[in-house]
Amino acid sequence: MGTNGKVGMETPPLDSGQSQELASLAERLNESLRVSGASSAEQAFGLGCTIGLTPILVILLVLFIFKVINLILAFILLGLAILAMIGIAMLVAQQARQNGMKRAYRTGVEAEINQYLAQSSLTRPQFDFLVSKLLPEEAPLQAFLSLKEQA
User: Fold this and answer.
1) Which residues contact 117 (CB under 8 A, 6 or more apart)?
2) Number of Cβ atoms within 10 Å of the Cβ of 58
């Protein structure tokens, strides 16, 4: 029927049941990736803040006890150090999110896609094209579909 405009590949027409099944699968796989990424990011952020706060407090306490800094300066430095620690923890959490989604894709999502393709008349490029039209552009699954199209 229609072509995707990239390779001139024909996508087979889907009836409403097949379209519904594909949309349901895409949503479920996308949600699986989102949850895995969020879980990894939350763990990394929490761990980063916990590990980062301890040395900050110890250093400031030692500096305050030995009268290197006064109480006001200690609170100012604590605030700045916490802001820096949160920024670093956010960067680590973003990387953990990406790694968590990649791990979830490799261990489960890709197998489900392959199983669906074995049961349907679609090829992987056709599947990628159809699912990319169903999901919002910022959906986690889109990143894995676009990687397949570029390869």
Assistant:
1) 123, 124, 127
2) 10
Q: Which one, of 11, 34, 9, lies nearest residue 22 by Cα?
A: 11
> Tokens 């552009």 label which residue?
137
Contacting residues for 50 by C-beta, under 8 A, at least 6 apart: none
CB 134 within 8 A of CB 22: yes
Closest CA to 118 of 110, 130, 107, 106: 110
Tokens of 120: 């349907």
Q: What are phi and psi of 7, to 5 degrees?
A: -125, 5
**Angle (nearest 5°) at CA 47 between 107 and 42:** 50
**pLDDT tens-digit profile, the chain (151 residues):** 444 444 445 666 777 888 899 999 999 999 999 999 999 999 999 999 999 999 999 999 999 999 999 999 999 999 999 999 999 999 999 999 999 999 999 999 999 999 999 998 888 999 999 999 999 999 999 999 864 444 4
